[in-house]
Structure formats: C-alpha cells, structure tokens
Amino acid sequence: MTRVGIATKPDATPRSRGGFVLSLDFELNWGVVSNASNAAYWPNIIGARSAIPKLLDLFREYDLRCTWVTTGLLYFDRRDDMLAALPRTQPRYEDASLSSYAHLDGVGADEDTDPLHFGLSLIRKIKACPGQEIGTHTFSHYFCRDAVGDPKPFEADLEAARQAAARIGVHCTSIVFPRNQVTEEALEVCARHGLTAFRGNARGWIYRSNGSADNGPWKRLFRLLDSYLPIVGDQSVTPSVEHGMVNIPASCFLRPYSKRRAALEGLRLSRIKREMRRAAERDALYHLWFHPHNFGADQDENMAVMRDIAAEAVRLDREFGWPSKTMADIAQEVLPQNAEFAGSIRVGGGS
After folding, report:
1. 281: which of 77, 86, 89, 175 is 20 to 30 A away, CA to CA?
2. Is the CB of residue 286 less than 8 Å from the CB of residue 22?
3. Rounded distance, CA 67 to CA 106, Å?
4. The pTM is what?
5. What is the Cα–Cα distance from 349 to 351, expressed in whole angstroms?
C-alpha cells in the first residue's frame, strides 16, 4: 500500500497548474437511506442507473476526465457478498438512523432485483471508460462529524472500502467525505491509509459542515441562491496540502434541472461558465461536483446542461491550455513539488 506521511507543517501551499475538475459522488440509495422520505426519491436513484452510461458517453466524446468517488457498499452484486464484507468495528451515532448498517434489512438479494443498493455493474462501466478515476466515498457513507467515539471505526471503514475496491482491481487514492464532513483526525487517518487527495468545502459560511444538524433552512436557502447569484463570490480554487492530503476545494455543486425554476436555468449556467472562464484566465482550478442521481430525473435537460459545460471546458482548454483533470492528477502534480511531502511518500507493495 502507498503510504503518505504527515509533515511537520501541514498547511504548505504548493504550486499547481489550473484546470477543470469534475467529481461525482456515486452512492445510489446509500446517500439518502437515512432520510425519512427517501422512498419518494427512489425514481431518481433508479434513474441514475441509466444516467451514468450517458454521462460516460458524454465524457468520452469531450475527453473529460472525472473522479467518481464511490460508496464501498456498491461494489457488490449479491447481498451475501456485501454482508460478508462488513467491517467488524462499525460507527456509533447519537441518531442511529444515520448508520447505513441500520438499514441492511431493506437490501435485496442481488443487483438484478435491487437496483437501489448494488452498483457493481455500473462501477465496471466506469472502470472501463478512459480518463475516469474511481475514488472512495467511504465504505458505509460514513459521517465523520456525526460519529461519536474514537477513530477506530473510521479506520475499519476505510480498510473495508479498500478491500471492496480491490476485488475488481481498483486502488483508490482520492476521497470525498459524505456530506462534506471533513475533520483533521479523519485526514490523518486517510493519509496513513494511502489516500492523497480530498475535496474540501467551498469557501463561505454557508458551505461549512459541522455535522448533520448544522444544515438549517437559512444555509440551504443561501446555497440555493448561490447557484444563481454570486452570494459567496468567486470560487476559483488552488490546492493546498493539509495533514498529508491535497485539498482540492469544491467550487460549485451542479444542481439538477428544476421545472419550477426553469426560467432561471440560463442564469445558473451562465454563472458556472463565467466562473470557469475566470479560473482559466487565472490558471486556477474550477471544481464542479454532483451526484449521478441528481441526473436521475429530467435526464434530457440535465444532460444538455452538462454538454454545454463540457463544450465550454474544451473551448477554455484550447484558448488557455486549461485541461480537464481528475483529483488524482492534481495530487500527483502537487505532492512532488512540495519538498516537505516529496520525501514522505513511500511506495510499498501492491494495494
């Protein structure tokens, strides 16, 4: 396993060329299973299964690189195999419903009969598509700020995720924390386990995450407004090294198409493209993210938006030399340039 040591000064800022970064949080029902009304969202989850091949075709057409951070529970196509892979040490939450393990009774026998909880066939399609990185979204959709107690369950979760990915020859080096619940302790654990990059929160108080309870209506409202108007301001980003990990902060969440806000779609898209151009002019990064299930409904409209963004990324690359990059690409650029960390990377045996 690749090991990345923890440097004495954790917040060095290395140089990195700019580019367009796209990361998708691939979780299917595991991302919403703790929501009381999640059954109403099942059509979107099932729709993600047809949206993913369309996204892959589009990425192939535009030569877009993408990081798919994938929940470890999706790496199976049979219930028995999933249950056999569960870590012995599991997280404890004050709200027990937050744990994916509290919902295992709802898992079906296999991927054919339960399209909500299994994703092995889709992961194989992603793996076969050129330019696609598969990262980790933890094994169980683990909430680092909501979990109580010591970090041992998180260590066990990462190891279970590593083993699940290794079953099909995937070695993950990038992570996105579910609900963006990043902690210093979790970063140190990730670095010890060979992960090198994470997606940090976007700038601004409305994007800080201190746990599931810290997501009140005002924050949600301002995040919605920020999709259309520059509430927070410019979101061009540069990577930094924190606790042995390269932080590639989010710039923008690509909200799904909404019939109720159809008149504002042009405003939303214009804002994204304007920020992409500003980042390209500054040789900075622009990090767009969403969930495949966000494209599960209104697929034609959502794919049209993604196609427009992809075409803009290609134009900016031709104009400024502003390429498409995965999170792993950026980590590979950053770590060798940072003297403190270059000496701390040790490559051992296989993953």
Report:
1. 175
2. no
3. 29
4. 0.88
5. 7
